[in-house]
C-alpha cells in the first residue's frame, strides 16, 4: 500500500513538472465574475423559497393572472396541430412574423419585410443576447442608463463587451410628488461617456424599474449622438403597450436617420400576460437582423412553435377587441391601488408613466440594526436590509433598486424599493392594507 501511494505521489509530481495539472477544479470563465453571474442575485434572495409563505410578492415582475382566454384558446388549438408542434423556421413562424408586420408596420411608418426585418426570439432577453453575440468584439463598450435591467450586464460581458454606466438623475429630494419623467438624462454626461471603443447604446423605454417614458426631445438627443459616433442603438421597448396618463411612446427608430442603426425589442410575455411563454421579437433593418439571425440560430435554433401561433393570434385580434386600451385602463387601476396606499402613509414615490413598477422612497424606513438579516443581505446596500425587513415584518416583498446600478452609483438606488403592480386587484388591495403598517417604522 505504501509503495502504491508513493508511486501515485511520484506520478502526480511528474505530471505537474511536465505541465500536466493534477486533478482539481477546472477554472471557469472570468466573464462569469465580470457579469455578476456567480453572485447571489436579487431574485435568488427575494423569492418564495426564502420569504414567509404568506408574503405577498410585489417584487418580481410576473403576473398572477392568466393570459386572455382567446389567446389561451389559440395556444390550445395550436397544440392540436402537427406542424405547430415541430421546429419553426429560425426567423419565426410565418404567421407570427406577418402579425408583427401588420401590427407594428403602421407604428414604424413603413411596411416591415417579414423575411429580413423581423426576427422571432425565445423571449426578449434571448433576442437582446443574440444582438450582443452578433455585434460585440472584445473590448467594445456598451452604454447603459442606470438603473438598468439586470440582464443587460452579464449579456454584455459574456460577449466580451465592457459596460459603461450613465445614471438617470432622480428628482430632487424636495419634490414630494415626482413622476418618472423627472428622472432625467444629462446629454453632456452621455457624450463624455462615449469613447472610440463605444459600439452600442441601450435605451429602455418605457423603463424598468423607473417607469420613465423617454420624451421625443430626450430620444432626439440620444439619436444625434448615435449618428455622430456611428453607434448601434438597442431599444428595449417590451413595455410599449403599457403607458399611462396619455404619455406618448416614441420609437427612436422612427427618428430621422435612426432606422438603419436601431433594433427594437418586443415581447409577447409583457403584451399578453404570458411571461413564461418566452416569445419575443426584434424589428430592424436587414443589416442588423441578418447577423442576429445567424447568432440566434446557433443559440436556440428556433422558438417554441405552438406559442408563436398563440402570440400571432393575440396580435391579430388585439385591435378589434380593444385589448391594449382595456389593458392600460386595468393597469391604471392597479397602479392607483398602490399609489393611494403610499399617499395615505405620506410616503414619497415616483409615479410611473410606463411599465408596471413603482419606486418607493424607503430612505426613511427605520429598522433595528441588529435585526436578524440573512448573510445574503448583510454587506449589501441599505435598501437590501429595508426590503428584507419590509417583507418579513409587513408581509409584502419588493426589490432593492441598488441591484440595478454599478458599485460607483449604487448609493442612488439605495433610497428606493421597486414594487410591481402586475398583480390582480384583490392581491394589490391586500398588499395595500398590509403596507399601512409601514407607518410604524417611518422616521
From TrEMBL:
Task: List the Pfam families.
Answer: Aminotran_1_2 (PF00155)
Report the domain of life of the source organism.
Eukaryota
What Gene Ontology terms describe where this protein resides (cellular component)?
mitochondrion
Keywords from UniProt, A to Z, are: Aminotransferase, Pyridoxal phosphate, Transferase
InterPro entries in UniProt = Aminotransferase_I/II_large, Kynurenine-oxoglutarate_AT, NHTrfase_class1_PyrdxlP-BS, PyrdxlP-dep_Trfase, PyrdxlP-dep_Trfase_major, PyrdxlP-dep_Trfase_small
Q: Give the protein's cofactors.
A: pyridoxal 5'-phosphate
Q: Which GO-annotated molecular functions does the record name?
A: kynurenine-oxoglutarate transaminase activity; pyridoxal phosphate binding
Residue ranges of every copy of the Aminotransferase class I/classII large domain listed in the record = 54-435
Which family would the database say this protein is a member of?
A: Belongs to the class-I pyridoxal-phosphate-dependent aminotransferase family.
- Report what the protein is called: Pyridoxal phosphate-dependent transferase
Recorded source organism is Mycena pura
For this protein's source organism, the top of the classification is:
Eukaryota, Fungi, Dikarya, Basidiomycota, Agaricomycotina
Amino acid at each position: 500500500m505504501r509503495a502504491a501511494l508513493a508511486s501515485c505521489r511520484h506520478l502526480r509530481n511528474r505530471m505537474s513538472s511536465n505541465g500536466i495539472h493534477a486533478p482539481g477544479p477546472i477554472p471557469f470563465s472570468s466573464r462569469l465574475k465580470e457579469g455578476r453571474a456567480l453572485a447571489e442575485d436579487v431574485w435568488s434572495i427575494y423569492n418564495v423559497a426564502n420569504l414567509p409563505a404568506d408574503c405577498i410578492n410585489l417584487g418580481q415582475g410576473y403576473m398572477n393572472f392568466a393570459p386572455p382566454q382567446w389567446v389561451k384558446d389559440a395556444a390550445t388549438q395550436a397544440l392540436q396541430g402537427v406542424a405547430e408542434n415541430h421546429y419553426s423556421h429560425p426567423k419565426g413562424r410565418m404567421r407570427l412574423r406577418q402579425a408583427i408586420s401588420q401590427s407594428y408596420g403602421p407604428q414604424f411608418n413603413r411596411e416591415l419585410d417579414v423575411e429580413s426585418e423581423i426576427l422571432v426570439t425565445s423571449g426578449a432577453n434571448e433576442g437582446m443576447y443574440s444582438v450582443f453575440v452578433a455585434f460585440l468584439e472584445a473590448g467594445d463598450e456598451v452604454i447603459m442608463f442606470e438603473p438598468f435591467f439586470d440582464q443587460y450586464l452579464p449579456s454584455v460581458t459574456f460577449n466580451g463587451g465592457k459596460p459603461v454606466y450613465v445614471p438617470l438623475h432622480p428628482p430632487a429630494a424636495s419634490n414630494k410628488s415626482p413622476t418618472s419623467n423627472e428622472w432625467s438624462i444629462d446629454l453632456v454626461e452621455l457624450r463624455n461617456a462615449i469613447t472610440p471603443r463605444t459600439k452600442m447604446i441601450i435605451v429602455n423605454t418605457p423603463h424598468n424599474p423607473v417607469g420613465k417614458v423617454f420624451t421625443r426631445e430626450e430620444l432626439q438627443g440620444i439619436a444625434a449622438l448615435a449618428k455622430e459616433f456611428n453607434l448601434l442603438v438597442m431599444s428595449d421597448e417590451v413595455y410599449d403597450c403599457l403607458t399611462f396618463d396619455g404619455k406618448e411612446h416614441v420609437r427612436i427608430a422612427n427618428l430621422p436617420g435612426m432606422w438603419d442603426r436601431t433594433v427594437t425589442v418586443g415581447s409577447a410575455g409583457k403584451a399578453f400576460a404570458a411571461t413564461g411563454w418566452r416569445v419575443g421579437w426584434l424589428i430592424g433593418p436587414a443589416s442588423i437582423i441578418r447577423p442576429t439571425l445567424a447568432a440566434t440560430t446557433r443559440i436556440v435554433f428556433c422558438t417554441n412553435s405552438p406559442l408563436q401561433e398563440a402570440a400571432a393570434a393575440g396580435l391579430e385580434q388585439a385591435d378589434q377587441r380593444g385589448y391594449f386600451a382595456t389593458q392600460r385602463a386595468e393597469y391604471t387601476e392597479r397602479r392607483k391601488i398602490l399609489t393611494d396606499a403610499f399617499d395615505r402613509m405620506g410616503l414619497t414615490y415616483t409615479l410611473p408613466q410606463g411599465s408596471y413598477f413603482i419606486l418607493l422612497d424607503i430612505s426613511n424606513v427605520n429598522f433595528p440594526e441588529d435585526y436578524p438579516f440573512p448573510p445574503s443581505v448583510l454587506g449589501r446596500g441599505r435598501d437590501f436590509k429595508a426590503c428584507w425587513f419590509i417583507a418579513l415584518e409587513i408581509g409584502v416583498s419588493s426589490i432593492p433598486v441598488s441591484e440595478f446600478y454599478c458599485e460607483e452609483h449604487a448609493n442612488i438606488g439605495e433610497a428606493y424599493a421597486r414594487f410591481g403592480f402586475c398583480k390582480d386587484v384583490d392581491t394589490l388591495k391586500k398588499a395595500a392594507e398590509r403596507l399601512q403598517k409601514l407607518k410604524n417604522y417611518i422616521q
